[in-house]
Amino acid sequence: MTTDTRESTADNPTTHRTNDTSVCLAGTPTSHRTIDTRESTAGNPSSHRTTDTRESTADSPTTHRTNDTSVCVAGTPSSHMTTDTRESIADNPTAHRTNDTSVCLAGTPTSHRTTDTRESIVDNPIARMTTDTRESIADNPTTPEPMILMSVSLVLLPPTEPLTLVRVLLKILPPSEPLTRESIAGIPTAHYNH
Question: Where are stretches of biased composition, namely Polar residues (predicted)?
Answer without folding.
Answer: 10-32, 58-82
